[in-house]
Fold these 3 entries.
Entry 1:
Amino acid sequence: MKRLAQLALLFCTLSCIFVVAGAETASAQTAPGQESASGSTSGAMQPTATEKPAARHYIEFRVGQIGTYGHSYAVYGVEGGKPNYADLHPMGGYAGMAVGHVLPVPANTQWDPGVLSLPIVSRYRRSLGADQYRKLLAAVQAGKASGRYWNAVTHNCNHFIGQLAQAVGLQVPAQFQVSYSFVPALKELNGDGKQGAASSKKRAAPTPQT
């Protein structure tokens, strides 16, 4: 009888152990996606912060209407942001420009807001990748550092924006032409304008630009 009682006690003990272990296992194995008592979802990934889209950069070459030649300049920056401007022009007004047809004259690369009052005759805009934009910024700084003089034949505003165009991988037409024809020719040369060639031929002249 004593031995039978011991076996009964052992059986009851083992049964209790199995019941408790089973209950713990069942509570730990919550089905994926099933909410626990705390209200959290088991196995669900926590939401991540929304990533900002990459900035879109650009450069736009423009021609402002002024005199016989026109004036070429560049606008660049981030889409939707504050634009930046760059150009090269002779110092000394028309007298300095007249001398600059023969000899180099002092030039200025500091942006003149008055240029924006000139009617825009032509424009050519290109989107840029991040690497292209870095090269553009370096070219702007290099152009300003070397833009100490202006000459109608060897170093004019077309030469300046042509350096920026080359920096971002564009082909550049001959700079010895008026600005009215230079930017349309730039657009046509890079396959972005069917009317560029006609416009260039119509406006082309043997005289340089500002």
Entry 2:
Amino acid sequence: MARTKSRPRPGNSRRQRRTSAWRWAGFIAAPAILAILVAVSALSERDTTGPDQAAPFELTTSDGQTVSLDEALAGGDALLYFSMGVGCDGCFAQIPEIEDSVAERGLTLLPIMVDPAPQVAAEAARFGIERPILIDPGARISSAYGMVGIYGHGDRPSHSFALVRQSGEIAWVRHYAEMFVPAAELFGELDAAVGT
């Protein structure tokens, strides 16, 4: 006995094709959206916006000292490191990661965080950091340098650097989406940009 195939109803066939098309569109759209987001992130990661001249400042450090930009620049150029601070382990790990490379280039490293000094000091101790960290209450200095509001952090810096020449000129600014940057990558970019 020969079997006869049942014919699909015309309405069902169209509906299945539409559903199938939407499924395929969803499969295609998700990777496309992800690729666009990655591309936008990569482009904005290269963001080098900031003021041309350094805003002068005098800040108290995590160990109670006072440091001014003028004093730091008296010894040569300075690398300002603005970071999210407490709650970001990578932000603290960044300091010992780059200290040797900063010294090799004759720069003064000035890490700047917005959290209260006792909290910053406790986290610094946890990471074995002996260098004083400058405290920027209310993110006043971070804002003056254009470091606030990058990568969705509305009230604090994300992970940004500014090279300030002894003359007070800002020679290089770099914002990173990552909360830790290997020294070789950071200084590869810095050296290529300004030839320190």
Entry 3:
Amino acid sequence: MRRAALWLLLALLAPALCAPPAAGAEEPAVAAPAGPAGDEGTIRKIISEDEDVLAGKRFSYDPAGRRDPFRSLIEKVDVERSGPKPTGIGGMLISEVDLVGIVRDPDGDLAFFNGSDNRGYFLRVGEKLYDGQVIRIDSRNGRVIFRQEVNDPRLIKPFREVVKELNTVEEGNP
């Protein structure tokens, strides 16, 4: 019953919906949105930039922290930093330093490291080594977390986190 009523209503309304407008009737004009005079210039600039990119005249790529998709994933990349290594802890790799202790300080925790030159160094959060920097010092668990810069095109992020932990010595065992 409902289906028949629906078909009847559709049959009655179809000619009115499909009929062309009367000869004297005018269609309402659709007005373009009014905007500042600078909008046209901006639109033209965007269109011309898009045309330049499509024509191959210009190219831009913003990696936003991701790897470059145009670099090979197979070849190994050895990137040498320009200039000589700095002296002291700033010239040491994260793998060359050993965590000796963590000191609590009212200004923030300090991590005590033994460098490859057999000297001791105190580092705070944010201080840099040659291939990374300290991002967190966890005095409760005896860990220091580094953000190591990695230049490997196979990785999504250009860095990785490296954790250095204190070696605990139990009483009675040297």
